[in-house]
Amino acid sequence: EAAVTQSPRNKVTVTGGNVTLSCRQTNSHNYMYWYRQDTGHGLRLIHYSYGAGNLQIGDVPDGYKATRTTQEDFFLLLELASPSQTSLYFCASSEGWGLNYAEQFFGPGTRLTVL
Amino acid sequence: GDSVTQKEGLVTLTEGLPVMLNCTYQTIYSNAFLFWYVHYLNESPRLLLKSSTDNKRTEHQGFHATLHKSSSSFHLQKSSAQLSDSALYYCALSGRGNYQLIWGSGTKLIIKP
After folding, report:
1. What is the pLDDT of residues B27-37, one digit of tens each?
2. Interface mutation target, options A106, A110, A111, chain B, most CBs of B under 10 Å
3. In angstroms, what CA-CA distances link B46 with A63, A75, B38, B92?
4. Apex CA B92: angle with CA A45 and CA B8, to 5°?
5. Predicted confidence band of residue A102 (pLDDT cuts 50, 70, 90)
6. Which strand ranges, in their side-by-side order, compose the sheet holding B63-66?
7. Count of structural domains, chain A
8. Which CATH number is B3-112's, of 2.60.40.10, 3.20.20.120, 3.30.1360.60, 3.30.1330.60?
9. How far is A105 from chain B (nearest CA, A)?
């Protein structure tokens, strides 16, 4: 059974729309991450968290909010979606830091289109 | 700050030829770890292999890489490319100790018959 799941898998919204992307992990990992993937830019970190109630700002946070409600659940919120946020979004989890703990496990991705 | 450079955005090779994808990095941490992730179309990115000690080769699924701290490099190699190797490859650095991975921009590898 998949250890990191995301929903929805595809989402189309309009400019100014409100979108919530969901991620759940069953790895019992402390760390969770939200990335966006765009051609020519690779994976870019939006927000991450090291536990319920914690939130850390990533490299491209503008226009995004996130919330970690439990160890398992991490949400990404786009309150006023813009076409520039059209992208493939990945959630990931990891145990911690160090060679044997820093491996990140990814969900299947959510393709978001903002018209 | 920490950074990872993958110079080639796209590499196109003929099946059977050797593969080498370049990865260089910058970090102030002497104990940095490097990873290669592979992302096949319509799948999730997943770990391909991770570094070991300085100058030691690590191998997985026919690919290998050696961490060279003297040149800050962790190039990915394979002796003979297969059609199924076509994918996006990311090099990533764990160096800050703050639980992020620093990602390169990725190299798209296309293997042609």
Report:
1. 988 888 899 99
2. A106
3. 27, 21, 6, 12
4. 100
5. confident
6. B19-21, B76-78, B63-66, B57-60
7. 1
8. 2.60.40.10
9. 7
